[in-house]
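Something for you to look into today, if you have time. What I am after is a single protein written out in full by you. I want to see for myself how the chain folds. Could you add the entry underneath, on a fresh line?
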Amino acid sequence: MNGGDSCLISVPSADVDGTGSLNMDARFAPLRKPLSRNDRNWHSRPVAITQFLHVSIGISDPEKSVPLYRDVLGFKVIAELRYDKLGPAKVMGFEEADFRVRLMMRDGYRPELIHFDNPRSDPLRDRPRTNSLGLSHLTVEITDQEKTWPS
């Protein structure tokens, strides 16, 4: 890519191997402009990231998850989108899909809550452990612990 070119790249969390490095043979989902595969060594140097955009979090129950992020953590819902066409399904790795995305925003951070109606997500049998692969936890800083959780 030339210095002035830019694109958005979405890397599915399943494509991050156990060492924390990207599996470069993984399925990349370019959102605007395809990456050139002519230079097979393009990934041998750090990617010039200009901004961290969002983290997509799969949710099972929007009626519970959205109020947590909105009312407890203080994120604003900036957009609610429904995707049921072939293009978004392919980007998400499915032949067909019907899903809703809630884009949230607070202090420049943007979690994306995603809920699939089709194909339905398998329910978690157990609560994920912190040593499970994928997103481990979300940490926030608070100013006054006593006001947040009074004794």
Summary: Helices lie at 62-72, 86-91, 145-148.
